[in-house]
Structures are given as C-alpha cells and as structure tokens.
Amino acid sequence: MPPSPDSSPDVKARKPTLRTVADATGFAVTTVSRALSDDPRIAKSTRETVAAAARKLGYVPDRAARRLRTGRTQVLTVLLNAEHEFLGFTAELLNGLSDALRGTGYSVTIVADRIGEDRMEVVDTILRNRLADALFFTRTEAFDPRVRLLMETGFPFVSHGRTEFTTPHPWVDFDNTAFARAAVERLIARGRTRLSLILPEDRFTFTQHLRYGFVSACREAGIAHEIEPRVTLDSPAAEIAEAVRRRRRSADPPDGYVCVGEVAALSTLSALADTGGRPGVDADLVAKRASPIFDMIRPRIDTVFEDIRATGSTMAELALRRLDGEDPAALTRLFSPSCDWQQG
Amino acid sequence: MPPSPDSSPDVKARKPTLRTVADATGFAVTTVSRALSDDPRIAKSTRETVAAAARKLGYVPDRAARRLRTGRTQVLTVLLNAEHEFLGFTAELLNGLSDALRGTGYSVTIVADRIGEDRMEVVDTILRNRLADALFFTRTEAFDPRVRLLMETGFPFVSHGRTEFTTPHPWVDFDNTAFARAAVERLIARGRTRLSLILPEDRFTFTQHLRYGFVSACREAGIAHEIEPRVTLDSPAAEIAEAVRRRRRSADPPDGYVCVGEVAALSTLSALADTGGRPGVDADLVAKRASPIFDMIRPRIDTVFEDIRATGSTMAELALRRLDGEDPAALTRLFSPSCDWQQG
DNA sequence: TAAACCAGTTGTAACGTTTCACAATTCGCG
DNA sequence: CGCGAATTGTGAAACGTTACAACTGGTTTA
Asked: Contact at 8 Å (CB) between B149 and B123?
C-alpha cells in the first residue's frame, strides 16, 4: 500500500477525543459529551450508540481538559507522615485507599507532611491552587488547624481520627478507648497488678481516648497504674527502651504493659530482656498491631489488631460520598478492636 | 466604603492567572508567559518586572491549563506493591521521592500494582492516557515487560533494580551481590560451617545477584551451603518459619542464615526459638534491614543496612534528569551495603 | 390557527496556558 | 539617510472538555 501521508486518517494514532467519537457516530460533540455522562436529556438509544462507539474507539476523557473546564481535579491527596506508631502503616493505608478508588477515575497523590515544618503550608498550597478534590490525613488533633481551615473553606476531607469540633465532619477512627480497656482487662485477668502505658503526644485526639480508656478501666478495677512521663510514642525507639529499662530498675516496677503499636511493644520487649525480665513470666504485654509481625516474635504476646487497610478503603469511600454531596455528619466510621489473646 | 459589586476588581478573590499579571504590569499575556519562563527574547528588565508582579500577586501557573496545552502532566507515578521484603519499605521510598521532588512542581501519584493481576494493564493505561510524565517501580525482572514497553515507547522511567536488556536505562539498585558476600564472610568469621539462604522469586533480577554472591562466596571459602527450596521471600511468613523449622529438625541443619529482609529474619528467629535453637549460640543470622527494628530485637543480630529513603530520592533525581534530556546510560546508581556487625 | 410546549439535539464560548506567525521599534553600518 | 537585521513585543489559535442558550420539528393547548 502506498503511503498517503495526508489523506489517511490513521497516519498518527492520535488519542481519541470527543471529536473522534462525534465524527464516528454523526452526533455533535456536545451530544456525545452528554451521552457519555448519561444525561437524561439525551435519548436512550443515542446514549447507547455513543457508548458503544466510545468503547470501540477506546475513548477516555482527557483529565487535563476536564479539569480545566470544571475545576475538578479528579485527584485525592494524602498528607504523608514520615513516622508512625505502626510498621507498614503507610503501605497499608495507601493500598486500602487505592483499592477502593480503582475504577472510579480518581487518582491518589501523596505529599510529604514533615514533622517540625509548617503543617498548614502544604494544605494552603493545595487549597489555593486547587491541586486536589479532597484531602486525607492522619494523626488528627483535638482542634486540628487543618480541619478548621478545611471546614471553613468547605473543602472536602476525611481525617483519620476524630476532633473535638462541634461541627461534624467525615472521619474514620479506631476505638482506642475500647482497645485500652480491653488491654487493661486482659492484663488484670492474667494476674497483673501494676499497669503501665506509653502515650503518643498530648495534642493528638487519640491520646486522650487511650488515656481515658486506660485510666478509667484501671480505676474501676482498683488497680495500680501509671503513664510513663519521660517519653511519648514518637520518641526514638532507643529512648523508649531506655525509659522502660530505668523504670524496671526502680522501686515497684510495672508488671503489665499496654503498648500502642509495634515500635513501643518491641522497645518494651527489648527493655524487658535487657533487665532480665521474661515476658509472660515477670511481666505481660498487650500490643496494638497492624502487621503480622507479632506472629514471629517469641514468646508470643497478646495483641489487638487495627485494620489499616480497611481504614484506608473506608476513608476513600467516605470521601467519594462526601464529593457526591452526602451529609458530612453521616460520614463517620469507628472501627472496633479485634482481640487476639494467646492461650493460657 | 460602599459596596461596588461590579466595578471593584476584588469582589471575588479569584485565583490570579496570566491575565491578572498581564493587566497589572501592562504587558500582554504572551509576554508574561515568556517572561516567567525566562525566555531570552524578553528583555531582562521586563522579566524582572513581571516576576516581581507575579510574586506579589501570588500567581501560580494552572496545572490543568499547562497540561492541556503542553501534554506534560507534571506528575510522576509510583507503581505500588502491596508486599515487600522490608517493613516500612513503601513509607521510606515515598518519603524519599517526595523529599527530592518538593519545590520542583512535580507531584507524586501512586497506583496499586496488585500481584496476580496483569501488571501491564496499569502501565498501558498510564501510557495511553498520558497520566504521568514518568514512572517508578520496584521488583524489577531480568527482562521486565514493563521496562521493555517503556523503552519501546520512549516513556521515561526509573526502575528499582537492574535488568538484563542491552539497551541502557535509568535505574537505582542495591548491591545485593556484595551484601550476600559480606554476609557469608561474616558468618564464616563467626565460625559457621553450613550456610542457608532464602531467595525471592526467581524472576526478579536481584534474586540472581543474591544467589551469585552467596554461592560464589561459599564456594571460594569451600563452605557448605544451601538455598531453601520450598519457600521464597514472598511466601507467607508462617510458611517461611515452617520451612526453617522443618530443616532444623532434619539431618545436618544449617548454622548460619543469610536473611534478605526483616520478615525473613524474624521468621527465621522464630523458627530457631521454636526448635530450641539460641541465636548467637546454635546459629547466627545476618539480616538485611531497612528499618531500625533490629535495634529492638534481642539478642542483637548482625545487620546490613539498605537505605530506602536515599533510594527514593535518587530515583526522583534521576527521573528529573531523564526528563531534562540527559543520556539514560548515565542515569544509574548502585548503593553499597553498609554493615553493622555486633561485637564478639 | 397561533401560541406554547416538549424531547432531542446543536453551536458557541470559555477554562488558562503555550506557541505560531507576525508587528513595531530600535540599531548597526555602509 | 536609508535599508536590513536584530530586539522586543503582540494577537490569535489551539489543546479537549463542559455550560449555556438556542434551535429543530413535532405535538398539545387556548
């Protein structure tokens, strides 16, 4: 076949546009656009014809054009923390999110949210330049300035963790109070008499939930308890371990530890080992976990599972429903702890 | 001041565009566009005036408009694996990437790359719909079909891991051969006489590098060695542990384990514990690690550190240079192991 | 019989940017 | 002085989409 550089329509396999579909079906571009969005003003038969042609041609709407025209970005952004109490938190959350979002046309972008820097700056930039349709973030504070700003401007978001604002907003959370209570009850059932807890930094909402669950459960049972004053969950693992070691060597050390996450649990275990304590004998632990890592730790310890992947996909689902105009007050979800006690 | 709904220019604080800057400076939109991209055709003084005005007005180019016009998305996409041999791999890599990309105007999007599904489909979609300017992925195979397709179409990418294609392409890798050799040498130095290794699946390039380093170092030293045949690094942790346990109970079990990653190391440790073996006494381990988790494991074991965050930022850097038109052959980087041997 | 209505469809404009082709000025230099 | 070339700038078009207003032709309504 001789080359026909100009006459042949498929000289360069250009990406099909609405124009392509319009030419193929004989309808106008506007009609095609409407047909593809299932606009009831377009006859059913037309919609079907157009849909079939679009499928055959492999038409996919151009994101840039749509975004320019509508202002909607089709992008959901996650504020990414460098550190977390769980190993594998980020991977699980992101996988949950993108699982729930596949096939929806939305894509997930991440932006680093460095501790110690201005956490608001990145949010500001996203709002000002309309870089996303909605925002996800974790480690929510009681009066989180991000939540305040987003609510003021009406920008959609789903937080991991509740706030204490009176205006409702979408969130997904884990029942940390129930976790702390369950952990305390388990340690008491194993005969422990002096319980210890290491908390995250005070500003996070879930810190208060943990504290409340721990303290109230201990008080109700009339059992001795303490909250480690020198370190937080965000302290370097070495410092956490050192704090536990020091306390172990002082008078009347705890014999039951509630550990909020894997780093704390492993640090506590190492401190126990370093001071000659045997887990299960001299002290017991209950740890919140998000990964299967504790299956490989010997001796086995009691754990409570927080499903971060489900958290991620729920956050995505709520965001979509929020973008769909649903009432934010209805878009909340509290996950309950699922306990995994060892025998004996 | 009385309200002047129509005359006042700042009735609605609309996002500044090129138009805004043009009106403010008295130049034409075209001129402003050129001035902002430092086009030499525009007088130096004009460029400065325009830049100052743009800064004052808080002008930021609209991504959608630019993308529609130029076809460039300003987006770099990471193919996200659900599983990895390291705990925290994803978080570290993504943080490295976004660290290196901050301030460049590029954003990072992630897309889940489910094992067991067609790994090419997602790449196809990204290419066909021009969803990104470049791609990052991990777990590279010797003749990785993704690499093949991307090279054929000339689409920019940086792989984590080398390939065996003759055409050069940008990659970042860790010297797994050197790691395996170092691990073998260390175990021999500790008096071990029968070494064992669990490999990732055969198709990955780094599997071959590990195998080569392990086998050749053992042969050179004339030491007994074996590669666990029943499981791979991607087997469930429970299966890995079971395989190690079974081997421990059979004749002439290994006394030195090279562990490629944290999951393998912890599984091996648990299997050792379950079969009455004491690490450091009955057997030794050398583990590759990416997180500080081994600082908390007792007894302490020898580790080799792979810096995943640096890997991420290097991948980003190479991608930018590739997009800048640099020769792909020059855009490679091999990280060397850094050993962390315990005393004694 | 004309006006009003309806379902179904269409043309035009606009989103904000870059780029093409050209225009207005100034300059070098014989 | 005058001509071509450089310097500096401009208007218009285009990227692909959707919103808006308007147009058809047929049917109902007053």
From this structure: yes
